[in-house]
Amino acid sequence: MSAKRRVGVLISGRGSNLQALIDAAKAPDYPADLVLVISNVPGVQGLDRAEAAGIPTSTVNHRDFPSREAFEAALDEALGAAGVDLLCNAGFMRLLTEGFVSRWLDRHLNIHPSLLPAFKGLDTHARVLRSGARITGCTVHFVRAAMDDGPIVGQAAVPVLEGDTEEALAARVLAAEHRLYPHALRLVASGQVAVDGERVAGIPVRPDESNGADAPEGRGESALFSPPLRGNF
Length: 233
Ligand code: GAR
Fold this sequence. Notes:
Structural class: alpha/beta
Number of domains: 2
Strand order of the largest sheet: 3-2-1-4-5-6-7-10
CATH architecture of the largest domain: 3-Layer(aba) Sandwich
Bound molecules: glycinamide ribonucleotide
Oligomer: single chain
Strand content: 15-25%
Helix content: 25-40%
């Protein structure tokens, strides 16, 4: 088997998506090792989750730096020292400069709680509810300089139900995020998909070879859609 990718994770808070990646990476055949977790916010729950899993952590507080560039230089230094070659944002809530994004181009993933390109930015679920949309979901994509923008690796669709509150909808989408992100990272880390221009291209696989990522019946979620599966449902 080829060498595992060395993954760094950027967080700002709770770290439940980080936990999903930690749990997935325990499987012997998972193609990625989590080698460093960096938070830009001190003392967050995600740091505790990483420590409990024995993953090295670092806090790089953006407030300690005079500029975005200086903050990002500190991120780069920590990531370089840990030998990170693939970066995952997991609830990382800082905008990154074009310089940082270009240094990690096509080696940097983000998860966002909507079906991009719809509902970029903050307060996603409240805006989905106000819009009257009947379907929302989550997206894992390669990072570009524009916020919540970039080639899409995978998406999961989630229904908006009558009477949903923001909290209920967020929880339903979060459950889908926890299944999508490990699946998407597996596709990227194993080389099954890669960026081709501004889209993600993959090796076609049959739906029954989709890493067990399809949603079980009755959980109110659609199947996960990733490039190899697109059009097969
Ligand atoms: C997740 O819902 C993630 O999609 C979102 O923040 C939450 C973090 O939760 N990210 C964004 O909105 C990025 N634009 P977590 O810390 O428990 O993983």
